[in-house]
Design brief:
It contains 16 helices and 20 strands. The chain is α/β, with parallel strands linked by helices and 562 residues long. Strands 2-1-3-4-9-8-7-5-6 form a nine-stranded mixed beta sheet, sandwiched between helices. The chain has a five-stranded parallel beta sheet with strand order 12-11-10-13-14, sandwiched between helices. The protein is globular, with a radius of gyration of 25 Å.
Length: 562
């Protein structure tokens, strides 16, 4: 199977590059940026500009595993840092097409004789890029699948909005490189090598907010690397089933289920792969769940054919452990540790052997935000209870963790769930954090606050499911939003109820649009809908005195508040 190799230097969107290319039907493999590539690159390769599928590319055709091109990812590092991550230099002599993205471009430039320096002002977010000239007649970055295309047919005239995230710029181009695109701020944005199949982008085409981003990636994959489509979700399922069978053998597997689409899809995959008698599903009602959630989750899991479904009621323990805690990371750590502590206690009661495997519905977004993506260069954004907990890490070190979804994004998991027969109500469900309402209550978490937030959130979500999108018959606001929820703020506001003065909690509503959760925009509600929903909440939930709407995008904010 043809594939694209991605070298991960720690960017928050590295896996997103792979995901975008998988959308095109081409398999991707991600390795640490500094990995030894001796096993996958030809030994003693000659430097040159041969493109796979053309004359003079015999070595490239024989690469291990069907690799047809290499992408160098972005990074939080600067190329001039003493410990800046560096690729195996054999990539520059192997003859394969290279695409450097952001840091990857800068590293390619410096490694081949160019220079990079800090910008006086960081370029971040949407920035216009103007195409200056064509790509010297060689296969370019324009029309997907068309050999010999140009990056643009109207050099110097057309612009597009790229997504920038960098604090450095190219100050001297390495020999052979030509600038074919420049940002509106005056810095190189698109580079092409005149002789070798090397390309560079100072922006992130993988991010959905980047105009023409998918077209650019498709042009590299098909027009330059000449890849053939051969990857699908069906292929992913077959691969994972084979991996699970080989790793687990006859050992029992315990899956911690939250009831969301992630863990439910993981449950469906396990039940489709292993005998149901060896699959144990454990759901913990932490007291931090949404309204009627436990009842709905139990019914959904039973429909999947679960034979061993263990429902654990442990709200008292979680509220006791969270008492007095206000710091969000402290709350996440406590919840993560308690999850494992209770799990171990409950497992002991089940009589499972000590060799059992612990499975989780961890997604790649969980891993990379926790700094646990491929390689060791990613930065921690926030700790996830199923990633950063010391006890989870101990299990991981023992090799007793199974995370079959850890290279997928949320929308891919939805597609997987549908393929595995998960009911549509669960597949459509908005993301819900593992720590539950604990990270949607700012400050200390109590039963009383959970009860207030639970009711307010139910009203909000209920209204989104009822209200249609203007001009779209049969489409609700809920289905047009990536994620929506309510947040209880640690402040009270004065108000009037009837003729009486009262202090009520302040509630923030959050609704975002996104394709993968890595970037997100604010959902543009009609003012009427927001006003009516806010009024319904304050009239229905007596402890809420004021409602606000969060209009922060990601970045710079995260989707969840904590």
């Amino acid at each position: 199977m043809d594939k694209i190799l991605i070298l991960d230097f720690g960017s928050q969107t590295t896996q997103l590059i792979g995901r975008r290319i998988r959308e095109l039907g081409v398999y991707t493999e991600i390795l640490p940026g500094d990995a030894d590539l001796g096993a996958v690159l030809p030994q003693g390769g000659e430097s040159g500009g041969a493109v796979p599928g053309t004359a003079g590319s015999a070595a490239a055709e024989g690469f291990a595993g069907g690799i047809r091109g290499i992408i160098l990812s972005g990074s939080p590092a600067s190329v001039y840092d003493p410990d800046a991550p560096a690729p195996d230099r054999r990539i520059y002599a192997c003859g394969l097409p290279l695409l450097g993205i952001c840091y990857g471009l800068q590293k390619m430039n410096v490694d081949n004789g160019g220079e990079v320096a800090p910008l006086p002002k960081r370029e971040y977010g949407g920035v216009k890029v103007r195409v200056l000239r064509d790509s010297t007649g060689k296969p370019g970055m324009s029309r997907p699948g068309v050999s010999g295309g140009r990056f643009n047919k109207r050099p110097g005239k057309e612009t597009f909005t790229a997504w920038m995230s960098h604090g450095d710029t190219l100050t001297k181009l390495a020999p052979g490189f030509t600038e074919v695109g420049r940002s509106e701020t005056g810095y190189p944005a698109v580079l092409v090598h005149r002789e070798k199949p090397w390309y560079g982008l100072q922006f992130h085409p993988e991010v959905t907010h980047c105009e023409r981003g998918q077209e650019i990636l498709a042009s590299f994959v098909f027009g330059i690397c000449r890849c053939r489509r051969g990857w699908s979700m069906e292929a992913y399922v077959e691969t994972m089933r084979g991996d699970l069978t080989a790793k687990v053998g006859d050992t029992p597997v315990l899956l911690l289920v939250s009831g969301g689409v992630d863990s439910t899809a993981a449950a469906a995959l396990l039940l489709k792969t292993l005998p149901a008698s060896r699959v144990h599903l454990m759901y913990m009602d932490t007291g931090l769940m949404r309204k009627d959630e436990t009842t709905q989750i139990k019914a959904a899991l039973e429909k999947l054919g679960a034979e061993h479904l263990h429902m654990v009621s442990c709200g008292d323990e979680f509220f006791a452990a969270l008492k007095g805690l206000e710091d969000p990371e402290a709350k996440r750590k406590v919840i993560g540790d308690l999850f494992i502590t209770i799990q171990e206690r409950e497992v002991a009661a089940l009589g499972l052997p000590s060799s059992y495997f612990l499975a989780q519905g961890t997604l790649y977004t969980d891993l990379i935000e926790s700094g646990a993506g491929v390689g060791k260069k990613a930065r921690v954004i926030k700790c996830h209870h199923n990633v950063g907990s010391p006890l989870v890490e101990a299990k991981r070190q023992e090799g007793r963790i199974i995370e079959p979804l850890d290279r997928l994004y949320k929308d891919e998991v939805r597609a997987l769930g549908r393929l595995l027969g998960v009911e549509e109500e669960t597949v459509r469900r908005h993301p819900f954090p593992g720590p539950g309402l604990a990270v949607r209550i700012l400050g200390e978490v109590t039963r009383e606050k959970c009860a207030v937030l639970r009711e307010a959130d139910a009203v909000f979500i209920g209204e989104l499911k009822k209200r249609p999108v203007p001009g779209k018959r049969g489409v609700s606001l809920y289905d047009s939003i990536w994620q929506a929820f309510a947040v209880l703020l640690p402040v009270r506001s004065v108000g009037v109820a009837g003729d009486l003065r009262r202090y009520g909690w302040v509630l923030a509503l959050r609704a975002v649009t996104s394709a993968d959760g890595m970037t997100a925009g604010v959902y543009p509600f009609l003012a009427r809908d927001l006003a009516e929903i806010a009024t319904l909440i304050t009239n229905t939930v007596k402890d809420i005195g004021r409602v606000c709407y969060d209009i922060s995008s990601k970045p710079p904010a995260t989707i969840e508040w904590e």
